[in-house]
Write a sequence for this structure.
């Protein structure tokens, strides 16, 4: 192998390996996020499969997450579980279950799906939820106890 080819291989390998780190890198022009963990409870019990949204109060980037079986969600703004941009947020939480809809018959006309809210509907809208969060570098865990 000639000298130029060897240098080319070394440069190519260096470029490939430079992208193999496990740490997340800041993306130019993208605001910094902090990991945020949200716990949702209703009537004292963890709420699984609830959609949690952090909506910025004055412009910016929203974050979302889905709770697990323990009622815990890790929020995402740009990439999975990357967290939330520090700031003030209104929070919505919604859990809907499919009660009717869809058809397995390919020749049947489409049937609109019908869903039922499993949580009080006031929590589904930022204007009525009454839930807020102030995300900072040091305040990254929130628990929301929902009531009727």
């Amino acid at each position: 192998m000639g000298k130029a080819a060897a240098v080319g291989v070394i440069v190519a390998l260096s470029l490939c390996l430079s992208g193999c780190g496990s740490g997340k890198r800041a993306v130019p022009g993208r605001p910094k996020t902090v990991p945020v963990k949200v716990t949702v409870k209703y009537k004292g019990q963890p709420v699984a499969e609830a959609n949690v949204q952090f909506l910025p109060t004055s412009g910016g980037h929203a974050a979302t997450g889905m709770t697990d079986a323990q009622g815990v969600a890790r929020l995402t703004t740009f990439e999975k579980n990357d967290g939330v941009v520090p700031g003030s947020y209104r929070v919505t939480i919604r859990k809907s279950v499919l009660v009717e809809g869809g058809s397995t018959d390919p020749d049947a006309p489409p049937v609109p799906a019908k869903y039922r809210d499993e949580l009080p509907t006031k929590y589904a809208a930022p204007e009525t939820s009454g839930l807020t969060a102030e995300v900072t570098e040091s305040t990254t865990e929130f628990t929301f106890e929902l009531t009727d």
User: Anything to note?
Assistant: Residues 31-102+110-146 form a domain with the Immunoglobulin-like fold (CATH 2.60.40.1120).
